[in-house]
């Protein structure tokens, strides 16, 4: 495990202390848990399908929105 030093505003440290006490965790354990959850959420949203490879696949086609609607509603 790596040790680091972080500075928190007084209001934030009070909220962290309260939340840690409510969950029966040390402040360090509480902060680690919150960060792990946040990073896991971020990672799961980053793993969503990247559709950028499909950008412009219709650009060379001579088709407009009206033609698409006509075909779709037949």
Overview of the molecule:
By secondary structure, the chain is mainly alpha-helical. It has a domain at 1-47: Met repressor-like (Arc Repressor Mutant, Orthogonal Bundle), CATH 1.10.1220.10. The chain has three helices and no strands. It has helices at residues 10-22, 27-46, 65-72. The relative contact order is 0.06.
Highlighted features:
single chain; 74 residues; mainly alpha; Arc Repressor Mutant; 0% strand; rod-shaped
Element-by-element helix/strand order: HHH
Largest β sheet strand count, sense and barrel closure: none
Q: What top-tier CATH class of the domain at 1-47 fits best?
A: Mainly Alpha
Helix content: 55-70%
What's the oligomerization state?
Answer: single chain
Mean pLDDT across residues: 86
The shape is: rod-shaped
């Amino acid at each position: 495990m790596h040790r680091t030093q972080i500075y928190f505003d007084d209001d934030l440290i009070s909220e962290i202390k309260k939340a840690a006490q409510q969950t029966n965790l040390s402040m360090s354990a509480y902060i680690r848990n919150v960060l792990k959850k946040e990073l896991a959420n971020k990672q799961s949203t980053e793993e969503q399908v990247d559709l950028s490879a499909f950008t412009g696949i219709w650009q060379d086609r001579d088709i407009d929105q009206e033609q698409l609607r006509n075909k779709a509603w037949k």
